[in-house]
Design goal:
The protein is mainly β. The chain has a single domain, classed as Lipoprotein localisation LolA/LolB/LppX (outer membrane lipoprotein receptor (LolB), chain A). It contains three helices and 13 strands. Strands 6-5-4-3-2-1-13-12-11-10-9-8-7 form a 13-stranded antiparallel beta sheet.
Length: 226
Amino acid sequence: MKKILIFLVVNTIFNIIYAQNFYRICGDYTIKGKSENSAQLIIGKFYYDKNEKKIINVNVFPEKAIWVTSDTNLYKIVDDKIVSRQTIPDFTLFSMYHMVLNNQLNNFGLEGSVFTLENVESVDGMVISTWTPSKNVKKIFGKVMISSKDDKLFGIVFFDTEDVIIKKQFFEDYTMNKGLPFPGKITEITFSDDGKELYQVTTYRNILVNDHDDENLYHFSVSDYQ
């Protein structure tokens, strides 16, 4: 009897640990962008494995193309050929996919980063926190304000070093996937230096966590296309 009880306890603990080991995520997305003079529509599917540290976007509209974000590189692959490579900041570990898998989305991954929690207040049922950059990066980053509701990220406002708002994001329509909250709609407003605003709305559906289909995409190798 004792052996059975020990087995059940160990098995339960193992299942809990395994269930909390979220390491990959995928889903469909639609991106609609709009500015004063243009509009944009992108439809595709994303794949992310936090062990691989690569974001794979497989777009089907307006063209069939694969975007691969890896380290400081953004590759565009069309018809099995790399048609462009751009150098970008390495933001993979700060991507929404990585934060969701690590249960860090509610504070946007700022805890334990170069930002420090300065103030927390409750306003109209929301918790609003203000994060300030450490001294060594104050010349690069401005403060960040985060609002959350029901322990889920609702909004985030980015400031420049002069305390001017440069971007806002709103997270809505959450769904639960194996216990992980994932926003079904993200609205982003970017403010340019000339006062213009760029709106982008991204909607997500068919989110899968720890999926074992499409292994070749989770382990995508750019070198196969060089």
